[in-house]
Amino acid sequence: MADPVPAFYNIRFLDELAAKKSIIHNVHPLMKLLTTGVYLLVTVSFNNYDLSSMLPLIFYPVIIMALADIPAVPIFKRVIPALPFIIGIGIFNPIYDKTPVLVLPWIVVSGGWISFFSILLKGILTITAALILVATTGMPKITSALGIIRIPGVFITQLLLTYRYIAVLDEEAGRMVRAYSLRSAGEKGIKFRDWGPLTGHLLIKSMERAQRVYRSMCCRGFAGEYHTGREKGISAGDLLYLAGWSLAFILIRRYNISEILGWLMMGAKK
């Protein structure tokens, strides 16, 4: 029987990565948040037929993961659940758009396939960038950065509590599934007729757990605003981090770096 408890530890895995020490982890959270925002804006601004122009954007997550010592495989495993939704958005493009497009002198494909892979690449890059931001910063520091740019406190509190208690909900679900498996020896999976009662019990247990958590927070002085502590000041290095990456993203958006490199390589061979 599938046990959701490992998923609980997977959620905690991003928090463990955020606790590491590296040159990327030391960058001010606001600078990393703004850099990720610029990266997302540049990524989604590309035309769906500019697949080759977007390719240099792959270097951003690769470089950040290398400098921050973030393992690539666990990050990409967390991208996989979103792939069906991304594929569902562009899956019909190859059917409706059969305009021939020359990719290389000897390769011609339809414009639909180009736009499909462009949408797929955009989705993978944006989700990976968001995961890397959480893995190198941590959700408390991200919400602190959101507070600096005057995002409403209600939104910040909802975001932080939702992130924190996804793990709590998963933990409750894990206990229920484990208890069900112990009471139904020899059964594989959960019977269809039991899904409704289990979901109802999970809802009731989650509400009870939420009430206990809320009372505990009130006892510790919670008054509607979640304090994440004071962040260090923004240094010149932090500003350079934002300016450097932003300039790189703008150059990638302005010029087709892949095409320029291709010309340079062909010229070097001649």
Write a structural description.
With 270 residues, the protein is mostly helical. The protein contains 13 helices and two strands; from the N terminus they run αααααααββαααααα. The chain has helices at 5-18, 29-45, 51-54, 59-68, 72-79, 83-90, 93-96, 111-137, 139-148, 153-183, 192-219, 236-254, 257-269; strands at residues 100-104, 107-110. The chain has a two-stranded antiparallel ribbon. A hairpin with a 2-residue loop joins strand 1 and strand 2. The chain is globular. The mean pLDDT is 84.
Question: Which helices and strands, and how do they pair?
Answer:
Elements: H1 5-18, H2 29-45, H3 51-54, H4 59-68, H5 72-79, H6 83-90, H7 93-96, E1 100-104, E2 107-110, H8 111-137, H9 139-148, H10 153-183, H11 192-219, H12 236-254, H13 257-269
Antiparallel strand pairs: 1-2
Helix pairs in contact: 1-8, 1-10, 2-8, 2-12, 4-8, 5-8, 6-8, 9-10, 10-11
Strand content: under 5%
Alpha-beta classification: mainly alpha
Q: Considering DSSP H and I runs of 4 or more, what fraction of the residues is helical?
A: over 70%
Distance between the termini: 62 Å
Uncertain segments? none
State the strand order across the main sheet: 1-2
The biggest beta sheet reads: 2 strands, antiparallel
Helix-strand string: HHHHHHHEEHHHHHH
How would you state the average pLDDT, rounded?
A: 84
Cα-atom radius of gyration:
23 Å
* Quantity of strands, as a count: 2
Shape: globular
Number of helices: 13
